[in-house]
Design goal:
By secondary structure, the protein is an alpha/beta fold. The chain has 17 helices and 22 strands.
Length: about 500
């Protein structure tokens, strides 16, 4: 049994016995051997002396994989590694892992020293974070940071508040602090959730990140189950590799990692940094993984507006079913005090149907008092909020026309977003034009890149690139001659018009 397999087996035995709630509470997910080896292979080893940081070491498999890589490198002579881990039980595994590696090094001509630090990584280095004159101390960082949400009164939150917005997750604070500790031109490899690329709560972090580093490579996993399948974790995950530099590489490499990890990667694509790194206030990092997604980004990047600046807005349905369960009834008659309630089951194959008989999705909501949960019956484009990554379409929609239901008010359940015009009612041409745009494969591919989760987020829709209103109207008029607006037909209309 090789040393990395031995290290992985030890931690899997430990992990299987550990309470799952405790692991979740401290954001603890151990990196598989295959991914550790792949991440280590991305680092360029071209110096005689190297100082390495693993800020959330766990059992040490990432650092040990890199140290095994270095053993086969003829150039490097001296290595020092700092490894942070503040879980006492895991710390014992870390000690055993590094002891095994040291035995290998003693048989070589290379000199290895290491420091195992049982302290909180963020809090230990806050002084350096706040020191504008600090220039870094490491050549290489390799990390799988912990993943858990922080409260606003948390010490880590307070100490790094200049890059925090809303409710943060500790993993991006680990990324930021690690980069702060990196020397100029020093290399980093991180495996993390994908959410920071476009998520709203990561906006300030992205603003900081793109000014500090040169991201040279993105590695995307084909399946959410792949990276931590031995831990039975389902999460959209990404590996990034780069260096600390103010200058961004012009062509960024993007690679898909296959599901079985045997071949590791597919053929990479190279994308211009202007397409990836958004210059709007959201600072989105848009990472296409296929030529189709790249073409969609390139196509839509030329649209001059956002949905909001074009005069439209997407909001989320106001009716939360468990908070209104006494008012949601299994009836079908619309009256002044009983309005239709629209659920995701009322949207299917691009069409709106009401009523629908479906278990617990009752179609009528009784009104009381101020009726804060209802909206005016008007023309809307309805959009499902939740779809899975594996579904053929991320954006699933249906046009809703006010004459479809004889009512003054309607209720929209919280699992649906609705698109409307801010200062006036959507015209029929605008509604049809919006349907064609959102029903196209082009926009669906674009949104798969933009979306940081399986949720179709209203904020991400509101700030996506969008055409002028006159273009939307013209697109709608072009669509009037078609009996069936399939996604291929919608693509054809957009390609013909623009």
């Amino acid at each position: 049994m090789d040393i990395l397999t031995n290290i992985e087996d030890s931690v899997m035995k430990f992990s299987s016995k550990r309470d799952k709630l405790k692991k979740k509470a401290i954001g603890q997910f151990f990196t598989p051997k295959e991914i550790s080896q792949y991440m280590s292979s991305l680092i360029q080893l071209n110096m005689k002396k190297v100082k390495i940081l693993d800020p959330g070491a766990g059992n040490g498999i990432l650092a040990c994989s890199l140290l095994c890589e270095i053993l086969n490198n003829d150039f490097i002579e001296e290595i020092h590694v700092d490894l942070y881990e503040n879980d006492m039980e895991v710390f014992e595994l870390l000690e055993k892992s590094l002891d095994q590696i040291q035995k290998l090094y003693k048989k070589s001509r290379k000199k290895l020293t290491y420091h195992l630090i049982m302290k909180d990584f963020i809090l230990t280095n806050l002084t350096r974070w706040n020191d504008d004159n600090f220039k870094g101390m490491y050549n290489i960082i390799i990390a799988n940071p912990p993943y858990m949400k922080l409260r606003k009164n948390n010490s880590e939150y307070q100490g790094m508040s200049n890059i925090v917005f809303g409710q943060p997750n500790i993993y991006f604070l680990f990324m930021a602090m690690s980069i702060k500790l990196l020397e100029a031109q020093g290399q980093f490899v991180f495996i993390t959730p994908k959410s920071y690329l476009t998520g709203l709560y990561f906006t300030k972090f992205r603003e900081w990140l793109v000014k500090e580093v040169d991201i040279e490579k993105f590695c995307i996993f084909e399946s959410r189950k792949t990276p931590f399948n031995k831990e039975k974790i389902v999460q959209e995950t990404i590996i990034i590799k780069g260096k600390k530099s103010k200058f961004q590489t012009e062509l960024v490499e993007i690679t898909n990692i296959d599901n079985n990890l045997k071949n590791h990667v597919s053929k990479p694509i190279f994308v211009h940094n202007k397409i990836i790194f958004d210059k709007t206030k959201n600072c989105y990092i848009k990472v296409p993984t296929t030529r189709e997604e790249y073409n969609a980004l390139n196509f839509i990047s030329k649209w001059p507006k956002t949905l909001n600046t074009a005069g439209f807005k997407v909001s989320t349905g106001k009716v939360v079913d468990f908070r209104n369960k006494d008012n949601i009834v299994n009836e079908f008659e619309i009256t002044d005090l009983k309005v239709p309630l629209i659920w995701n089951v009322n949207l299917k194959n691009g069409k709106f149907t009401w009523p629908v008989k479906y278990k617990n999705k009752y179609q009528i909501m009784k009104l009381h008092g101020e009726n804060k949960n209802t909206i005016i019956n008007s023309n809307y484009l309805l959009i499902k909020r939740f779809t899975s990554k594996e579904e053929s379409r991320r954006i699933q929609i249906a046009p809703y026309k006010k004459e479809m239901l004889n009512t003054k008010l309607i209720g929209i359940e919280n699992h649906i977003n609705y698109l409307y015009k801010v200062n006036e009612e959507l015209s029929q041409s605008e509604l049809l034009g919006l349907f064609i745009i959102f029903n196209s494969k082009i926009v669906d591919s674009y949104f798969r890149v933009l979306s940081s989760s399986t949720q179709v987020n209203a904020n991400e829709l509101n700030f996506m690139n969008f055409p002028e209103v006159r273009d939307i109207i013209n697109i709608g008029k072009m669509g009037e001659k078609y009996k069936l607006l399939t996604d291929e037909v919608c693509d054809g209309i957009l390609l013909e018009y623009f």
